[in-house]
Amino acid sequence: MVNLTIDGVQVSAQEGATVLAAAQAAGIDIPNLCFMKELKPYGACGLCVVEVEKCPKLLRACATKVAEGMVVNTKGERAMKARSLAMELLMGDHDGDCQGPCKLNCPAHTDCQKYVKEIAEGRFADATATVMETFPIPASSGRVCPHPCEKHCRRSLVEQPISIAQLKYCAADQARKDGTLRAPKVARPTGKKVGIIGGGPAGLTAAFKLAQWGHAVTVYDQMPEMGGMLRYGIPAYRLPKDILKAETDAIEALGVTFVNGFKIGRDAEFDKMRGWFDAVVVANGAWKSSAMRVKGEDLKGVWGGIDFLRAVAVGEKPDIGERVAVVGGGNTAMDACRTAVRVGAKEVYVVYRRTRKEMPAEDIEITEAEEEGVKFKFLYAPDEILGRDGKVCGMRLQVMELGEPDERGRRRPVPVAGKFEEIALDSVIAAIGQRNDPEGFDDLPKTEKGTIAADEGNFSTTLDGVFACGDTVNKGAGIAIGAIAQANEAALAVDAYLRGGEYRPVKPILSERELTERDFADRERIARAAMPQRPAAERVRDFNEVNLGFSKEAAMAEAKRCLECGCHDYHDCRLIRTANMLRTDTKRLRGAFHPGYVETELGVIERNQRKCITCNQCVRVCEQIAKKGILGLVGRGFTTVVKPEFDDPAMIACCAECHLCVDNCPTGALRLM
Fold first, then answer.
1. How far, in Å, CA of 646 to CA of 660, rounded?
2. Does domain 101-183+517-559 match CATH 1.10.1060?
3. CB neighbours of 74 closer than 8 A, spacing ≥ 6?
4. Residue 23: CB partners within 8 Å, gap ≥ 6?
């Protein structure tokens, strides 16, 4: 045996062993991508370099034998610099997607590619379970999400993006219909209690996560039923309430306690409520409509968009008359104008100060509103709401034109001097935004906007054990999936807090490809599936769901359009794991790539040369362990690639049984076909 010191730890190793093997046996991690104890030392990746006392140069731990009295430093400044440089060079020539752009651009990072693939295979329950790894309401969310994932779907470089959101809710509907929905597992009780204020998407998601981790969770909400804006701000023709109820019931079935009709400041002071729990999450949403700040806004017949939708949702029949104008251009404005049609208005206008191109609402929402008879007045802004006997009788509109772009790139609307127009109205609905209600939360710190100030990373507040997330914090109201994303981070932070630690999110290092239409020129063009709908003349008469849903066959066919951009081996990839360990800049040394293409000469194994880092692991495994020697390095210098050395069918047939090269590839460059 040989005695040596590695990072200050006394280590004994068999004579002839390498420094890397000795370190691994002692539980000391030295990054490497090309070392296997069954193979002869090779040193291709250059990551395992270490500093050895009295040695002027860096040594590769995988090829350096131990010596008596050797003193090794694996984390010295020189070694770390060399290791980081080696990793940057490897990543600079690694042309692969760790995750698909759909997942990367979902605020909650839902594994879209995975559940779409499961739908393509007819595994609807598995697809629903995949979504529920991130949040608990797939059927509801899929119906209302503005799907930023689809805006970045690479299928749009072929023809049109995958119907990711619609597939999500159709899978959940099908799994519920088939009776195959699976409840998530719940850990043993921790004895810790968490109170959540707000039963909307953020509060429900936090409750769902924390209950699974064994904490006793109670959710308080001021409304009669759980769901928040999904129940009281989204019309039933978009999200049927029985669908939402089924999903909130499933959360309650995990052991979560629901308390409705409860308002902080009325039923209990916030400070008192804090004393009931070990931790508290404030997710009370944004329930106040933003004001238009024009003359006449206090007249009878002026509604806030959220107030109007909530009144309809609870069964009231708002007296809005026959002529209605909705001010705004977002999805709430579309919900308000289409709801106004359904409650009896004969003339419904949408007044928007920019053009249709700049409207933030989903294009399908605008189109469906037009089909239902809504008239759009673009490049108009409210100047004054006109009244008679204290009630709305019309609105004076300022004619606008587009000027220079604002900070978000949208051209600013500019008033055209002296140009106005008047329209006769019975009511006006202001759908220009919403804000939180700070009443009852005086002890919590606020931003200049009046929202609750929370840490941007873990959503903790300055009050010990109090966290806040969703529309009530920081920048204010956003889309539901954004609130869900915050709730996931807040839940992790609460769990860590309850266990005596602290959660700090770390952005993962990822490899991302930059592609254009030319990269997909050879793909067959397949039209995006059209969602079947009820005809406009029929649907305006009630609040039944507009969309009819995909059949199993249609959903599977649509899902099969997926290009499967993200790497199949991401969760087991040693390359990206090492990149994250070293916090590698994946783009600093990016330049020309070595020859990149996908080949299948081995019949059962696909080799993606774009992902290959030429570590030679597969060649060595095939030669030294499998004893076949089918693979070899072809070319010289930068153009070198790994290829089968010959195409003898009898020899290659063994690949189907062996696939050791696939099992030991550190990058996901190989996969079984």
1. 18
2. yes
3. 6, 7, 23, 28, 30, 50, 51, 61
4. 6, 11, 29, 30, 61, 72, 74
Tokens representing 616 are 């030679």
How far apart CA 377 and CA 77 sit, in angstroms, is: 65
Q: Tokens 């009896």 correspond to what residue?
A: 344
**157 band by pLDDT with thresholds 50, 70 and 90:** very high
What DSSP string runs through 557-595?
Answer: HHHTT----S-TTGGG-HHHHHHHHHT--SSTT--PPSP
Taking the C-alpha atoms of residue 617 and residue 662, their distance in angstroms, rounded to an integer, is 10
Distance of alpha carbon 611 from alpha carbon 618, whole angstroms: 13
Mean pLDDT value across residues 217-224: 97
Q: E strand or H helix at 391, and its extent?
A: strand 391-405
- The correct CATH number of 289-434 out of 3.10.290.10, 3.50.50.60, 3.40.1640.10, 3.90.1150.10 is 3.50.50.60
- Cβ neighbours of 511 (radius 10 Å): 23
CATH architecture group of domain 193-287+436-498: 3-Layer(bba) Sandwich (3.50)
186: tokens are 């719940």
The Cα–Cα gap between 227 and 234 comes to 10
Looking at residue 646, what is its pLDDT? 65
Q: For residues 568 and 670, what is the distance between their CA atoms, to the nearest angstrom?
A: 10
Task: Locate 538 and state its tokens.
Answer: 């029929």
- Residue among 98, 82, 100, 60 at smallest CA distance from 562: 100
CA distances to 477, 501, 515 from 552, rounded to whole Å, are 35, 46, 32
Beta bridge partners of 380: 399
Distance CA 119, CA 557 (A): 9
pTM over 0.90: yes
Domain 2-92 has CATH 3.30.2090.10: no
Tokens of 19: 């420094």
- Which residues share a beta bridge with 648? none
Cβ neighbours of residue 542 closer than 8 Å, sequence gap 6 or more: 237, 342
